[in-house]
Amino acid sequence: MPVATLNGIRLSYEVTGTGPLVVLVMGSGSPGRVWRSYQVPALVKAGFRVATLDNRGIAPSDACASGIRMEDLVGDVAALIEHLGGAPAHVVGTSMGSRVVAELALARPELVARAVMMAATGRPDPVAQMLNRGEQALIDKGVELPAEYAAAIKALLNLSPRTLTDPAKAQEWLDIFEYTSAGTPSAGVRAQLGMDRSRDRIADYRRIRVPSLVIGFADDKMVPTVFGREVAATIPGARYIEIEDCGHYGYLERPDDVNHTIIEFLTTATSS
User: Fold this and answer.
1) I need a labelling partner for 267 at 20 to 30 A (CA). Which of 91, 184, 193, 234 fits?
2) Overall pTM surpassing 0.90 (yes/no)
């Protein structure tokens, strides 16, 4: 993957396809390559040039272990769009990435053609904040959970009951989670977890004028759909679509439905 010095850091990214630019922004602790299983091929086939990036904190982008702010992540995506000469670009994010998309639409609307926010929220949630603090404490105290236990917890938090009650699918996910749960999280991931998430931005989202789509995952325990509906109701003219039978990883559990929803929205944008 190319690495460029953008917004004051070394930022890793990858571009595939030709056509209008779509930038995909991943959530906390995950690399940009996660998008490449399903979303990148579908978007390229639909006629888009697709850029994925490793958010600061995720190697080989700089770890920025001294601290990461939301403004930093927004600036990174803005710099990448300008670097690729793709403005205005369509920008799609999930979880933390959806907050980056919303803040980019506020701060640099001239860079955003259309915004898609999955598993979105605009305000702090006490349960999510406590879980985040717990994850930070595990790292700070040097506690490494057994990979089997970490895998089971990750599955329960991020997947739909429909997936978990299918023995074959559940085992496939558990194997993936067990493999990726080994080892201590990096300093960069710790810095992402330590970002300030305490600000209520709902009132500010009323100033977003970029055409926006909010996608909720019906069985999402990490970001319940009430938060996404609130974001969509706040952004003027935003659409809200809910995907059934999937949890926080809905873009991986129900990729065909998610991809169809995104592409339909973006295709409408490019043809209008």
Assistant:
1) 234
2) yes
Active site amino acids: 95, 220, 248
From edge to edge, which strands make up the β-sheet containing 239-243?
Answer: 3-6, 9-16, 49-54, 21-25, 89-94, 112-118, 212-217, 239-243
SS3 82: helix
Q: Are 265 and 238 in contact (CB under 8 A)?
A: no
Average pLDDT over residues 163-175: 97
pLDDT higher than 60, residue 271? no
Strands 112-118, 49-54: parallel, antiparallel or unpaired by DSSP?
A: unpaired
* Residues in contact with 234: Cβ distance below 8 Å, sequence separation at least 6, in sequence order: 122, 202, 203, 205, 206
- Distance in angstroms (rounded) separating the CA atoms of residues 251 and 249: 5
Across 79-90, average pLDDT: 97
Distance CA 177, CA 147 (A): 8
